[in-house]
Write a structure and sequence with these properties.
- The protein is α/β, with parallel strands linked by helices.
- Helices cover 47% and strands 16% of the residues.
- The chain has seven helices and seven strands, in the order βαβαβαβαβαβααβ.
- It has a seven-stranded parallel beta sheet, with helices on both faces.
- α3 runs parallel beside α4.
- The model has no long low-confidence stretch (mean pLDDT 96).
């Protein structure tokens, strides 16, 4: 895997799960990482762990629902490291529930984080990448962005939106030599099921993940694959599931 050493990678949702393991993987391969998440203690501890191993990292408290905080994260990376090569728009939640249960606060949070958070990341990174005439934006969708099942209406809608936004972005940024990628994981062992607040759904989802989910490093390897390609190769979408996952 080449083409990663020295790259500056900004990661949202970096305190745990996909974001944390991707930061560790990329740092081990020589990337400089800017870690954003609401959990200040966790990202500061992760940054310290990376630096203790000889890597370079900064931690910036970031709630992706706040566009100014997302811009602060990206700008801090550029100020610290001189550029931004990759934005990993990773922050997301999965508050599954049947529509009839009217979990409207969950709907709002899902839209704010999974859609607006991605747009805010793009808004923060794109001006820098246009000026550089280089960069890569990786947006995290889901298998749920390709399919739908009962209880997943709002979540699937947000993840399908990520794919729509990403494809439009891909077409628009051709003049600036910017690459765009979507990563759509299936059941992967992270804390995502903990964001299910509907008690009738939570237990079955956690049981499904316990039986089916694969290690989170599967996601990190997909990120590394997308980034490590030569600059004239644009990996636009990676969709992967556990071998035993049916939907």
């Amino acid at each position: 895997m080449e083409n990663i050493e020295g790259k500056v990678v900004v990661i949202t949702g970096a305190s745990s799960g996909f974001g944390k393991i991707s930061a560790e993987y990329l740092s081990d391969k020589g990337a400089l990482v800017a870690l954003g998440a609401r959990s200040t203690d966790k990202i500061e501890a992760l940054a310290k762990s990376i630096k203790d191993k000889g890597g370079k990292a900064i931690a910036v408290t970031t709630d992706v629902k706040d566009k100014d905080q997302v811009k602060k994260l990206v700008d801090a990376a550029v100020e610290e490291f001189g550029k931004i090569d990759v934005l990993l728009n990773n922050a997301g939640i999965m508050p599954l529930s049947p529509l009839e249960n009217l979990k409207i606060d969950d709907w709002d949070s899902c839209i704010d984080i999974n859609i607006k958070g991605v747009l805010y990341g793009i808004a923060a990174a794109l001006p820098h990448m246009k000026e550089q005439k280089s960069g890569q934006i990786i947006n995290v969708s889901s298998v749920a962005g390709h399919t739908i099942s009962p209880g997943g209406a709002v979540y699937s809608a947000t993840k399908h939106s990520v794919r729509v936004i990403s494809e439009a972005l891909r077409q628009e940024v051709k003049p600036y030599n910017i690459r765009t990628s979507i990563i759509s994981p299936g059941a992967v062992d992270t804390g995502l099921p903990d964001s299910v607040t509907d008690e009738a759904v939570s237990g079955s989802i956690k049981d499904f993940y316990a039986d089916t989910a694969i290690s989170a490093d599967s996601f990190a390897r997909a990120v590394v694959f997308a980034i490590s390609q030569p600059e004239d190769v644009d990996i636009n979408e990676i969709l992967f599931r556990p071998t035993k996952q049916k939907l």
